[in-house]
Specification:
TetR/AcrR family transcriptional regulator, single chain, mainly alpha, elongated, Tetracycline Repressor, domain 2, transcription regulation, DNA-binding transcription factor activity
């Protein structure tokens, strides 16, 4: 899985093949096929790092919890899978195995944690009842992707800046 993630960061999704992973991991291709029936299963297993990401401390404020989760989102995209992999999602469905694995293994679980945290903020009375939580998640994640697409980099203070922009609209 480390070899698959390294290839993903260095070469993008098209560079993650069973043959390349075998070569870069020092394993026989047959060994990889014993564990993973196909490239999709290998990609999904490699992207399962999100399952081990810690949850924010429940003692933090909603804003601090969301900032923590945005930091994890950023780390996962920049350091684990690499922004080259994220860019592969944009032109369309050139690599449906990767697109499906990335959406199911990375984006959906992380977005769900953010969504749950926002909804908990609504229940706790910290956030407005009429806050469109799914839209807020999309706006926050989208702000990261847009900054990267336009500027080629994302400032270190992105999470705080994004929250500063949206917080007045959702806070009680």
């Amino acid at each position: 899985m480390e070899a698959a993630l390294r290839l993903l960061r260095e070469r993008g999704p098209q560079g993650v093949t069973m043959e390349a992973v075998a070569q870069h991991s020092g394993s026989a291709k047959t060994t990889i096929y014993r564990r993973y029936r196909n490239r999709y299963e290998l990609l999904l297993a490699s992207l399962a790092f999100v399952e081990g990401m810690p949850e924010p401390d429940p003692g933090l404020s909603q804003r601090e919890r969301i900032a923590f989760l945005l930091g994890q989102f950023r780390y996962g995209l920049e350091e684990v899978v690499g922004l080259r992999a994220v860019g592969a999602l944009l032109p369309g469905d050139d690599d449906p195995e990767f697109t499906r694995a990335f959406r199911e293994g990375v984006l959906a679980p992380r977005f769900e944690v953010l969504l749950t945290t926002l909804r908990e903020g609504v229940v706790a009375g910290e956030l407005r009842e009429d806050a469109d939580c799914p839209m807020v998640v999309n706006m926050l994640a989208g702000s990261f992707l847009a900054r990267f697409a336009v500027e080629g980099t994302v400032p270190a203070d992105w999470a705080d800046t994004a929250l500063d922009s949206i917080w007045p609209a959702i806070c009680r």
